[in-house]
Design brief:
Order of helices and strands: HHEEHHHHHHHHHHHHHHHHHHHE
Shape: globular
Strand order of the largest sheet: 2-1-3
Number of strands: 3
Low-confidence stretches: 432-443
Mean pLDDT: 86
Strand content: under 5%
Structural class: mainly alpha
Length: about 500
């Protein structure tokens, strides 16, 4: 099965190129896209089931043995992110319909969406920093193009801060890679983790700092966070939902993959704890002041990513497990909320919460399930994720970060209640100075439009029902991340270019 990580990586790339060659108005265009997405989800499910047993698949390209050359490593963390990416890809393709969003948006958006997924899957499975850098750039190029799919002035303006900030992050990333390679002669993650842990030095720790700064910027953390809420409202609704679910999680994933390096640089880990706490608090405050729906949800991404990074910085098994649980929960819930936001905007013809009419029915139920989960109310998945993080922070006696998380949770709940009051309960008032709606509201869609959203809600509910087994999986993943010798033994074991190892 060592071909599996490569197949999962190649399939979305080939799908994107194929869709570029197919006329977008062909009746089987979306059918072809959905077929590719279903196959990707099936392969990702097989990979996840293998990884859950402790099997780690390793593929060295060109038969170059690690630490030389490019290597794919599919362990528990990689398989989890690949599975969630494949699920969200399927839902996004399902929602992005020509009769709702126009043939032009679908024709231009779907090929780029698959190419973006190819870059994400490559990043999630890489075993070396250089290929991670290349995968990041592929993701960023595809995302820049996707931001232009609507073709509006706002989409063009929204791309500028995204490009500028991420170029800065790429510069820090490249400098960190160069410094580590100059000091240690390798960019292989397993090799780096062992080398830095055995002989830490100020120069090596500074290089780790550069990498952490790059990934923190890409995750949308304080202080360079304001590009993120400006970017997501600029693109088409379903594409924004995919961005919200996966893009910032790429930065969080990279920080998680750095966990072995952080054990040798505790000052970097401690910095991440405080950056995470401040991000959680400020993101929640900024969201509470917003009246534009997608900007409000964008600031909440900053807040929720702060939770994950704070847990990561604590570097205990419990904290890392809670961050991984929170990561999975947030991908599902945040994407659902962005899909709901898009539907609300289309039904009302405006993005301003104060000008929306009351909405009832299935969309309101979907919103409640996702919003209450994001706020951490029991018995939903967000409750177990936040409980794990609060417990880990309490055990670490990090009292100020613990207080920040508690306050941020209250702010999240207040923001979700604000959306409910203005968009769903019918108590919103239209300020007299506001002009007429920005665009005519769309007709009420058929019930099938909500089916993809129900799929995400069901998976989120299942995550809550099986919170115990999934926390065990998350703890096993955390142990894998911190098991330097075990990771190095699997990755650098002798044999052919492809082999399997077991990391319990």
């Amino acid at each position: 099965m060592t071909w599996l990580p490569v197949a999962i990586w190649l399939l979305p790339g080939l799908a994107g190129l194929t869709l570029w060659l197919v006329p977008g108005r062909a009746p089987w265009f979306r059918t072809l896209a959905l077929t590719f997405a279903l196959i990707e989800l099936g392969l990702a499910t097989i990979l996840f089931r293998l990884a859950a047993t402790g099997t780690t698949l390793v593929h060295a390209f060109g038969d170059w043995q690690p630490p030389f050359g490019i290597v794919f490593v599919a362990d528990r963390l990689s398989a989890l992110l690949v599975l969630l990416c494949a699920l969200l890809l399927l839902v996004t393709v399902w929602v992005l319909r020509p009769r709702v969003y126009g043939h032009s948006t679908v024709e231009r958006g779907l090929p780029l969406l698959f190419l973006l997924s190819c870059g994400l899957v490559g990043a999630f499975q890489t075993g070396d920093l250089f290929h991670l850098f290349v995968a990041f750039e592929v993701v960023l190029l595809a995302s820049y193009a996707l931001l232009q799919v609507p073709g509006s002035d706002r989409s063009t303006l929204g791309a500028f801060p995204n490009v500028a900030i991420n170029l800065l992050a790429s510069l820090f990333f490249f400098l960190g890679i160069g410094l580590l390679y100059g000091l240690l002669g390798t960019v292989n993650l397993a090799d780096l983790a062992v080398s830095i842990s055995s002989e830490p030095s100020p120069a090596k720790i500074f290089a780790v700092y550069l990498l952490a700064v790059a990934f923190a910027i890409k995750a949308g953390l304080v202080p360079l966070l304001f590009w993120l809420p400006a970017t997501y409202p600029a693109t088409s609704g379903p594409l924004a939902a995919f961005f919200a679910g996966m893009m910032t999680k790429l930065g969080v994933f990279a920080l998680l993959r750095m966990a072995p390096l952080l054990t040798a640089a505790p000052v970097v880990a401690e910095t991440l704890v405080w950056v995470g706490a401040v991000s959680a608090l400020l993101g929640g405050l900024a969201a509470l002041s917003e009246v534009e729906l997608r900007r409000l949800l964008g600031f909440h991404i900053v807040s929720q990513v702060g939770y994950m990074v704070l847990g990561l910085g604590l570097l205990s098994i419990g904290a890392l497990a809670a961050s991984i649980f929170y990561l999975a929960h947030h991908i599902l819930v945040k994407a659902t909320l962005f899909f709901v936001a898009d539907e609300l905007e289309r039904r009302n013809g405006t993005r301003d919460l104060r000008r929306m009419r009351a909405v009832r029915g299935g969309l309101a139920v979907v919103f409640l399930a996702a919003a209450f989960s994001l706020a951490g109310l029991p018995p939903l998945s967000g409750f177990f994720a936040k409980l794990g993080l609060l417990r880990a922070t309490f055990e670490a006696a990090a009292w100020a970060p613990l207080a920040a998380l508690a306050v941020a949770s209250v702010l999240t709940l207040a923001s979700m209640l604000k959306i409910w009051r203005l968009a769903f309960s019918g108590t919103a008032t239209v300020p007299s100075e506001k002009p007429s709606p920005e665009k005519p509201p769309s007709e009420r869609p058929d019930a099938s439009m909500l089916l993809p959203l129900w799929l995400l809600v069901v998976v989120s509910v299942l995550l809550a029902i099986y919170a115990g087994p999934f926390f065990q999986f998350a703890e096993a993943t955390a142990r894998q991340l911190l098991d330097l010798e075990g990771y190095r033994g699997v990755l650098l074991s002798p044999g052919t270019g492809s082999h399997e190892g077991v990391m319990r």
